[in-house]
From TrEMBL:
It catalyses: adenine + H2O + H(+) = hypoxanthine + NH4(+). Keywords: Hydrolase, Metal-binding, Nucleotide metabolism, Zinc. PANTHER family: ADENINE DEAMINASE. It comes from the Bacteria. This is Adenine deaminase. Pfam families: A_deaminase. Its cofactor is Zn(2+). It comes from Sphingopyxis fribergensis. Binds 1 zinc ion per subunit. Substrate binds at residue 286. Belongs to the metallo-dependent hydrolases superfamily. Adenosine and AMP deaminases family. Adenine deaminase type 2 subfamily. GO terms for biological process: adenine catabolic process; hypoxanthine salvage; nucleotide metabolic process. Its EC number is 3.5.4.2.
Amino acid sequence: MPDGFASTEERATFIAALPKAELHLHIEGSLEPELMFELAQRNHVAIPFASIEEVRAAYAFSNLQDFLDIYYQGMGVLHTEQDFYDLTAAYLARANADAVRHVEIFFDPQGHTARGIAFETVVAGITRALDDTAASYGMTSKLIMCFLRHLSEAEAEATLDEALPFLDRIDGVGLDSSEVGHPPAKFEHVFARARGLGLKIVAHAGEEGPPAYVLEALDLLKVDRIDHGNRSLEDPALVARLAAEGMTLTVCPLSNLKLCVVGDIADHPLRTMLDAGLAATVNSDDPSYFGGYVNANYQAVADALDLSRDELLTLARNSFTGSFLSDADKARHLAAIDAYARPAPRV
Ligand code: ADE
Ligand code: ZN
C-alpha cells in the first residue's frame, strides 16, 4: 500500500486532481500525430509517414539526438498563426484536464524562422491561445524562448534581436537541443544580454551532458532553474550546492525513459533527488513523443517508486515555488494545495 493512501487507485485519483504547475514543456513537442497529419494536409507539406500508427512506431529513440531529428522534422508542418494557435490550444486543453493551474511554455523560434516562418507568426499564435485559455480555464502562463544550442551564439543573438519587439509577451530564455559538445559557456554573452533585458534564465543541463555543464549553467548563465539536471547527482558537491541554493530542477520522467537517460523507470532518480533536498518537479517535456502528459509522468514515477502522499505534495508545491509567478500568486497556489491535502471533514 502506498504510504498515505488506501490503494494505488486512491493515489491515481489524488494525482489526477492535484493542483500543479508544468515548468518544462516544449510546445512543439506536444504536436500529436493526428494534428501533424491535419496540418500537413492544410499546408500541403509532405511528411514521410503513411499513417498515425507509422508515426507512433517511429517514436523509438535511443538517445536525445534520435528524438531531435524527428522533432525538428515534425514541426515542419507548422506554418500559419492558426497552426501555432491550434497546437497551443490542444496542449492547454490537455493540461487543464490534468489539473495544471499554471504553465511555463518553451518554444523554439529558430526551428521555425530557419524555415521562413516569421518570428511574429509563431509568437502571435501561441500567445493568442494562451490569452484565450487564461480566460476560459483560469490557467496562468509564462512563455520562454529557447536558443538551439547546436547553432552558434551569433544565431542566438540574432534571435534575441528578433524577440525585442515582443518582450512584453516573453518572460524568459532557455537553452535546448543537442547538449553534448554544446556547453552553456558557448552562450555566455547572449544570456548576459537576456538577463540585462530583465528576462528569466533557464537551461537544459545534465540531461546527457556532464555535471560540469550544470555548473556552467549556474556560474556562467546564472540560471533561475535547471531543466533536467539528472547528472548533477554524479557530483555530491554540486548536489549540496543545488540544495543549498534551492535551485529548482524540472525533471521529466517519461522523457528520461524514452531517451534512455534511465534504463528503467524503476531506476529513475526522482526520490534520490528529493531525499537529497533538491527542489525537483515533474514535467512532460515533449508529451506527444514521450508517451504522456504531466499526470502520466506523475503516475509512472509514483507507481515505479511507490511515491507517498507527502512526496507527491512536495513535488506539486515545488512546481509553484519554482515558477516565475509573483510571490502572491505562489502563495495562492500553495494554499490551494494545502486545502487539497486536508482530509474532507466527516459528516
Ligand atoms: N528540445 C525538445 N525537447 C528537448 C530535450 N528533452 N532536450 C533537449 N532539447 C529538447
Ligand atoms: Zn526539454
